[in-house]
Amino acid sequence: MADPVVASHLSLVLKAPPTISSPSQFLLQQHSKPMASSLNSAASLRLFASSSSSSSSAAARLSLRSTSLSFSSSLKSLAFSTLSRHKRGSAVSVSSTGGFSSVASPKCAASDPDQLKSAREDIKELLKSKFCHSILVRLGWHDAGTYNKNIEEWPRRGGANGSLRFEVELKHAANAGLVNALNLLQHIKDKYSGVTYADLFQLASATAIEEAGGPKIPMKYGRVDVSGPNECPEEGRLPAAGPPSPADHLREVFYRMGLNDKEIVALSGAHTLGRSRPDRSGWGKPETKYTKDGPGAPGGQSWTVQWLKFDNSYFKDIKAKRDEDLLVLPTDAVLFEDPSFKVYAEKYAEDQETFFKDYAEAHAKLSNLGAKFNPPEGIVLDDGPR
């Protein structure tokens, strides 16, 4: 093959659902329910490399001239652009217009700390205008929640590696509607190209909890992205909302991740945020007295009255069982039925401080599952308490 130029072309057709962004949650899934719409876009990749014929100066004169992604989509402004660094230090720029990329991207080095801090501020503004706390939590959890502790190889083990940005994983039934979360974050990814997808998803999730009044999550960053859709996990690793044996199902899924009963119950408490929408999960009412007027897109059924406030009311309301307009899934009810789960659920219903402490630890642990960090110790944003 001729020396200076390597070119490749890749086309994919995706179709994004027309629904607008709205909150949804991690445990609210049915594996048998197909995604309402497939994703649709066209993408082409062109890679050009040039080098000198002089061996003495080849390394200094080697340049990677450009990498471009161009694609179109019916989903408004669903575009991601990245500026990443190869392990050898070559610069790669990706420009995009009007669509979501499902093509492979270069493996990234660690995210830039300053860009992470700036991206967090933009996420805070997004939360204020879109009230999208719950769907951002769900996005981070679903990227991390595919982790299998019994598989050592990265990225086959799954986990927080940015794989959820690819069509093949977005089409998993458990991820129905999460294209809306990608749509919400696309302009932030464009703006802060030095932040990996894996870090952005977890940053958005933790920020959403904190901005809703929840605890400060002890996060670290520097997660490396998977490079292509062939590295996505197989379908079926995320929990369902109404399995025949809820307690057994929760333990099967979360024990596979390396989490225990206390962490299962604490993480379930994140249902204090958000709503279930029957068009996405098959669960909940189309609207209730608590959701008919929003904020954000109206409709759905919430677990709590103030479904944009992070507190321990989820546990209080499940225990009380006195409001038909509040949702209780089989995987929620079992927290007060299973003897081991009940110990923690009762404690959290009475003691919000203990719930916040245990939740923050569990959330941080979940966000690190399966991740490969560069640098290996990760990046901590040293900005003090919230």
Automatic annotation (TrEMBL):
Its EC number is 1.11.1.11. Gene3D superfamilies: 1.10.520.10, Peroxidase, domain 2. Keywords: Calcium, Chloroplast, Heme, Hydrogen peroxide, Iron, Metal-binding, Oxidoreductase, Peroxidase, Plastid, Potassium, Transit peptide. GO terms for molecular function: heme binding; L-ascorbate peroxidase activity; metal ion binding. InterPro entries: Ccp1-like, Haem_peroxidase, Haem_peroxidase_sf, Peroxidase_I, Peroxidases_heam-ligand_BS. Residues 270-298 are annotated as: Disordered. One of its GO terms (biological process) is response to reactive oxygen species. It catalyses: L-ascorbate + H2O2 = L-dehydroascorbate + 2 H2O. It comes from the Eukaryota. It holds the Pfam family peroxidase. Residues 195-386 form the Plant heme peroxidase family profile domain. The keyword Calcium applies. Plays a key role in hydrogen peroxide removal. This is L-ascorbate peroxidase. It comes from Gossypium tomentosum (Hawaiian cotton).
